[in-house]
Amino acid sequence: MDNMIVIDNLNFKYDNNIVFKNLSLSIKKGSFTTILGNNGCGKSTLVRLLTGLEKANSIFIDGVFLSDDSISSIRKKMSVVFENPDNCLISETVIEDLCFPLENLNYSSDYIYSRVNEISSYLGINHLLQKNPHELSGGEKQLVSLGCALVTKPDLLILDEALSMIDDVSKKNILHLLKRINNDFNTTILNITHDVEESIYGSDILILDHGVLVHDSKDNVYKQEKLLKKNGFDLPFMVNLSNKLSYYDMLDDVIFDMDEMVDLLWK
Questions:
Q1: Rounded Cα–Cα distance for residues 71 and 63 (Å)
Q2: How far, in Å, CA of 223 to CA of 235, rounded?
Q3: N or C: which terminal CB in the chain sees fewer CB atoms within 10 Å?
Q4: Which residues touch 40 (CB under 8 Å, ≥6 apart)?
């Protein structure tokens, strides 16, 4: 499997504040990777570097060196969903916001409305299309923001604390949806968050603390509870519960989904 993102010995600082020193990592195409980090560890700076808002000489996106010459073509391959959806919902109606990214790319009207209807159906937001975005709930706003990010069919989807402002039910629904997007379209997803509970939906975990400490499958990371605690994270609830039930020989493997857990225990 080829890599979607490669960072090779990245050094970056603001004035005298060193953010990254010899940071190297690779993100495989088609993976769903969670980057865990607490405030001040460099998560937002990493997003700015990956999107070309800050400059570095060691980043490759889909095999292309990220530079002033390549940034326009690279940005066409990626979309970013940020923490506050109100910052990207700028139109009078949801459908206008969904059309906007495609209009900027000069697609035909027929293609735009066809694609908007397609992504709206996929996300289940057809009933929101004629509404004012600012009248929506937090979860609905973030779904629309996700639609704006996906409407261009990006190869790389980056979420920058995108689920931190919504309720737990909406968060769970969107994470299930992201997992389906990853499976259905082979979209590379990079979920950058401080919430360890979000990590159970991806396949890989990277723990960031001014450098890469762990980049591995989530199963292997969850076995390193001391490392998680050292960096301020507890085991996700479902992992901790699975471990306790395994101790009493009630489970053989970690179960990440509560409904699956209930079904298994009631058999």
A1: 13
A2: 9
A3: C
A4: none
DSSP 135: G
Question: Mapping DSSP to helix (H, G, I), strand (E, B) and coil, where does residue 175 land?
Answer: helix
Structure tokens given for 60: 């490759």
| pLDDT tens digits, 83-108 | 999 888 999 999 999 999 999 999 99
Q: What is the spatial distance between Cα 85 and Cα 98, in angstroms, rounded to a whole number?
A: 13
Q: Is the pLDDT reported for residue 115 higher than 70?
A: yes
The sign of the CA dihedral 232, 238, 243, 248 is positive
Taking each helix axis as running N to C, give the angle between helix 138-150 and helix 109-123, from 0 to 180 degrees, rounded to the nearest 10: 140
Q: State both tokens at 224.
A: 């390193």
Phi, psi at residue 142, to the nearest 5°? -70, -30
Question: Would strands 59-61 and 64-65 be described as parallel, antiparallel, or unpaired?
Answer: antiparallel
Instruction: In whole angstroms, give the CA distance from residue 120 to residue 126.
Output: 5
Q: Which residues pair with 189 in a beta bridge?
A: 32, 157
Count how many residues are written for the chain.
267
Which candidate, 3, 47, 41, places its Cα nearest to that of 25? Answer: 3
Could you tell me if 157 and 187 are in contact, meaning their C-beta atoms sit under 8 angstroms apart?
Answer: yes
Cα separation of 188 and 176, whole Å?
15
Q: How far is CA 197 from CA 64, 132, 171, 256, in A?
A: 33, 31, 10, 10
Tell me how far apart the alpha carbons of residues 5 and 27 are, in angstroms, rounded to a whole number: 5
Is 101 within 8 Å of 153 (Cβ atoms)? Answer: no
Q: Which tens digits make up the pLDDT trace of 15-72?
A: 888 888 888 889 999 999 999 988 878 888 999 999 999 998 899 999 999 999 999 9
